[in-house]
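Predict the 3D structure for this chain.
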Amino acid sequence: MRYLLTQVSVLLVLQIVTAESAAINGTPSWTPSIIDDLSGSFFVSSPDLAFDHFGTPSVSWSSVQQPSGTNSVRLSRLGGLGFWSTQTLATGPDIGLQTGISFDRSERATVAWINGSGAVSASFDGGPNLAAGAGAAVTAPVITLSHDLEGSLRGMFARTSPGGTSEISFDGTAFGSADLMSFSGVAMLMDAAMVADGRGLRQIVARVELSAGSEAVMAASEAPGGGPWSSGSLFTANTVSGVDIAVDPGDGNVAVAYSTFDGVNTSKLFFAKFNGFAMETTEVRSSTQHRFEDLSLAFDLADGLPAIAVEHKDIGLGQDQLALIYQDGAMIWQTSIIDSAISFDAPGGLQRRPSLAFDDFGTSFPAVAYVDNDEVLTVAFDPPVPEPSTVMLILSAAALIGFTQRRMR
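Done. Predicted structure below.
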């Protein structure tokens, strides 16, 4: 009995120390895991990565036949031995142009996707396909899913009307859709993402082409108590290359990351955080040697620091790379190359951005889903490495257990 209690005590201490360790500690060491290898007449749509609260990563994605043919919407989950199990949710002509995934509080996945007809379909917990909306834009398909703190689905897709968006909801049985809000002065909504902040209010950030001809990062906020949404431009540039939004787990406020290009030679990467009163913007990177393109923003759940997975073109080397640019414990932005040879866009110039997520079970660590230059759908993990103090504790625990075993003989 004393031996059992000692083991339990040591394990509890190890769990507490591990949970408090920083997720990105030192230089990330990336371990790639291949989901599927598509070639020939098929390509992968933008993958969307999410962890359930038990630490299992899942990816929604589509295999798309070019120029037009039979597509498949898929949900892949990582098993205990490192193999991915893939479920086909739907198969048909011209479906699954873009997908999104999110987990509710009972670890059940909702996957939604846009079809070539403009119809939106969804599947709850691997169940049958259900109608979830209509009138979605298909030239630049945009769909995003998340859950608020109460566990309610918060989904959004771009409509065919310029700057228009619709919501996706779920009542436990059926999906619903209704007009959400519209950005004014917009010729085309090219990319967008939506989250619910710590108050449960929905916040949208979008990459848009303005009616005046330039491009902009625009944001919109749901009004407390209902009523019209407030919206406006955060940044205007010759070209806006990527945009994303995420919620800081510490204070519940939102942050936005976006990349720009001046049309000549300078590319920039920005991070903007709402401080409770206004947006505070930081120029993370500015370069004439690199181009920052599509990106994905997430917060480290262990220490609350932001990280950005970004398509990173090395102009001098002529390589399309995937990088993680993240804040370290000293609040300095660091860069880690995840893969030195990726494929930025899908055939036909269709957008295909990476997807960054942090595990929130035990020690938080980052993972990024992306497509490499051989059309291989991959998830790269930066597994946690114990702190030196944790290593010493593990050694001490092992010695303590060994001593107890000897005493009990």
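The chain is about 10% helix and 50% strand.
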